[in-house]
Specification:
Layout (H helix, E strand, L loop, with lengths): L1 H24 L12 E3 L4 E6 L5 E6 L2 E6 L5 E6 L5 E9 L3 E17 L1 H4 L8 H6 L6 E5 L16 E3 L3 H4 L6 H14 L3 E7 L11 H4 L6 H13 L7 H9 L1 H4 L13 E3 L4 H4 L7 E11 L8 E6 L1 E2 L1 E6 L2 E6 L6 E5 L7 E11 L5 E2 L7 E3 L5 E3 L4 E8 L19 H7 L9 E5 L8 H19 L6 E4 L3 E2 L12 H15 L3 E4 L5 E2 L9 H14 L11 E8 L2 E7 L5 E3 L7 E4 L5 E3 L1 E5 L2 E5 L8 E4 L9 E3 L8 E2 L4
Parallel strand pairs: 1-7, 7-10, 7-23, 8-10, 23-24, 24-26, 25-27
Antiparallel strand pairs: 2-5, 3-4, 3-6, 6-7, 8-9, 11-22, 12-18, 12-22, 13-17, 13-20, 14-19, 15-16, 15-18, 20-21, 28-29, 29-34, 30-36, 31-32, 31-35, 33-34, 35-37
Helix pairs in contact: 5-14, 12-13
Length: about 650
């Protein structure tokens, strides 16, 4: 009995000491608060941080005061009513520490989430470098939440408030072009200070931004959630993807540092990049192979940024030069092009190592040998095909375990909700902007469930009612299809899911961008229409301005002899054709075979027909990833893609 009591007491004191150490590492005030920030107008604001349990903390701004007492977990939270719109104000926080934050404005705070097209920096956008140089807007403030994946609830966001000045768009990865153009227009039209919080990570699916409690109710996510719990219990790095953990467990080359410049590869087999997997005995199976060779570069080295080009690689590659990590990718559809950092290359001999994970029989390097090269700063090429050394690190043929996914960036469910959304809450805000969907295009029907559920998760977390949630409908992408398809592609179906969400979820809206985009680039540089159309939604629906925020929207279908008449809402200024042709419309009869339609304007309607479809019953508009989308209203806004069938 005494031994049991002693064990219990030791466990108690050990847990208390760990808890005290945890509190000691947490900041007195959350980084969500700081100089240059914007506090939300018109609603209670909460400020929080951590200190010793039971400690009183006092908050004051513009003569208004509030108190809080740190709870058992050390967290304190004080609620206060913000002063009038404008500023600047000083926020004072007293307790075991005294903190003052100056140059604080009171206005509206917008949370800007999504994947790479929301993350896409202003300086990279079309004409963005010039815009960044003149981006001096005292009434706009910026907070960029640094990428963080977490398998449990993270407490502290990584980032700080910044002024809207040129340096904020050229340093540290810059700031979102879409968010900036949104904030610029709203601030100019309303005069209200705007705080923009960029909370986005490239390549990430919607489920990564969702609450685990929600996803536990969806059977398809159970294997992923079980694996996350296993990895969480094991401890170690929280990558947010499966393949990095798989490498940690099984890749001997990683654990033995085969990428090190001095590693002895003399016992490896002679091979080439194109024939390597066959030469090493794994031509058709899932495998990880490492390849090494020496290359000789000129003396002196040409000035400028060099890069390594590997073409398209199936499935994942990791590149080291002279022991330095250069780049890695699991985006099979993208030709590899990694810039080589300063001081990595040297005149004379250089050591190059490439790790490749192959998952298909024809995987590995898919381009011709001539496409594999280093391009020096002056544009001169250095061929990479030739004599290499190679060896197998992981022969992953069954029954060897495989990862649940091969992406090497955050794609796990919940990990960004836990790591990047939870730490921001319960900050008072006006609403959210969302530019995402590309990463869910392989399961577009699932997205019809995920997106509304994710919106509900965010609203529940921030506990500020059904705040505005404005969604970007995906722009044009991939080559245009010559014939109408019987089923929409995943990109088109994601647009449909976004439109269904905007119609069914209270206080939400959709910014149509189908007239923008780039057939060859998933990251189009034209971001002004995206940000400004989001701003129109906010100006109309949140700020009550008399602006047009939507283009022509399908209202009803009227059958005619051998034709169909389409009626629209949101025809402000009438229907307008931009371009040489009104398109693109397709019609089908009861046989469900789609044909391109002839279309003509008749007042505020459009009549469509086809000689190949004598009795049309359904119509589609702009129903492919990269359609000819030339229908607008007089306010200059594009028509929303639609279909009248449910086939």
């Amino acid at each position: 009995m005494k031994r049991l009591l002693l064990t219990t007491l030791l466990a108690f004191f050990f847990s208390v000491s760990l808890f005290a150490a945890d509190v000691a590492t947490l900041p007195f005030v959350s980084p969500m608060f700081g100089e240059h920030m914007v506090l939300q107008r018109g609603k209670p604001n909460r400020v929080w941080g951590w200190t010793k349990p039971g400690t009183e903390v006092r908050v004051e701004i513009a003569g208004q005061k509030a108190k809080a007492v740190a709870a058992a977990d050390g967290r304190w939270e004080a609620e206060f009513t913000p002063p009038p719109v404008g500023g600047p104000y000083v926020l004072k926080i007293d307790g075991p520490q005294h903190v003052e934050f100056g140059d604080i404005l009171v206005g509206d705070v917008w949370l800007c989430g999504g994947q790479s097209n929301m993350e896409f920096g202003l300086a990279r956008a079309r004409d963005g470098a010039a815009e960044a140089q003149k981006a001096n807007h005292p009434g706009i403030r910026l907070f960029r939440v640094a990428s963080k994946t977490a398998y449990g609830a993270a407490k502290v966001p990584q980032g700080k408030w910044q002024l809207c000045v040129p340096e904020s768009f050229t340093n540290g990865g810059g700031f979102s072009a879409v968010a900036y153009y949104f904030g610029r227009k709203v601030n100019a039209e309303t005069g209200i200070p705007i705080g923009l919080i960029q909370d986005a990570v490239g390549g990430t699916p919607a489920e990564a931004w969702m609450n685990p409690d929600t996803l536990r109710k969806m059977p398809e996510f159970q294997p992923a959630l079980i694996e996350i719990e296993r990895l969480k219990a094991r401890g170690g790095e929280e990558y947010g993807n499966y393949v990095s953990h798989w490498y940690d467990e099984y890749d001997r080359g990683q654990s033995e540092s085969w990428g090190n410049e001095k590693f002895d590869d003399s016992k490896w087999k002679n091979t080439s990049l194109k024939s390597g997997f066959a030469d090493l005995g794994v031509p058709e199976t899932v495998a990880v192979c490492w390849f090494r060779r020496e290359i000789v570069l000129p003396d002196p080295l040409p000035a400028g940024v060099a890069k390594i080009l590997l073409g398209v690689v199936e499935r994942m590659d990791t590149v080291f030069i002279n022991g330095h990590w250069i780049g890695a990718s699991a985006w099979v559809e993208n030709p590899r092009a990694y810039p080589i950092g300063a001081d990595v290359l040297r005149p004379g001999k250089n050591q190059l190592t490439i790790r490749v994970l192959k998952t298909k029989p024809d995987g590995g390097f898919t381009n011709t040998p001539a496409d594999l090269k280093i391009v020096l700063g002056d544009g001169s090429p250095v061929a990479l095909e030739g004599s290499w050394k190679g060896t197998v690190s992981v022969d992953a043929r069954a029954p060897h375990p495989l990862p649940l996914g091969y992406e090497n960036y955050p794609t796990m469910p919940i990990v960004l909700f836990q790591g990047m959304i939870r730490p921001v809450a319960p900050l008072a805000l006006t609403g959210a902007l969302w530019y995402q969907g590309e990463a869910n295009q392989l399961k577009p029907l699932q997205y019809q469930t995920l997106l509304p559920a994710m919106i509900a998760d965010w609203r529940a977390l921030f506990a500020q009612g059904d705040f505005p949630f404005y969604i970007v409908s995906l722009p044009a992408f991939t080559p245009r299809q010559a014939e109408p398809a019987s089923t929409g592609d995943g990109w088109t179906q994601i647009r449909e899911a976004q439109a269904l969400t905007a119609r069914s979820v209270a206080n939400s809206g959709l910014a149509i961008t189908v007239d923008t985009g780039d057939a060859a680039d998933i990251h189009p540089t034209e971001k002004i229409p995206v940000g400004e159309r989001l701003a129109l939604l906010a100006l109309k629906n949140t700020y009550g301005k008399a602006v047009v925020c939507a283009g022509p929207t399908f209202a009803k279908l009227e059958p005619l002899p051998g034709a169909l008449r389409i009626h629209f809402s949101n025809t402000d200024g009438g229907l307008v054709v931009k371009g040489e042709k009104l398109g693109e419309f397709a019609v089908a009869g009861a046989d469900k075979v789609w044909r391109w339609a002839d279309a003509r304007l008749e007042g505020k309607t459009i009549v469509v027909s086809s000689p190949q479809v004598p009795n049309p019953v359904a119509v589609r508009y702009a129903w492919q990833a990269n359609p000819l989308a030339t229908l607008f209203n007089g306010a200059g806004l594009p028509a929303e893609p639609f279909r009248t069938d449910n086939w």
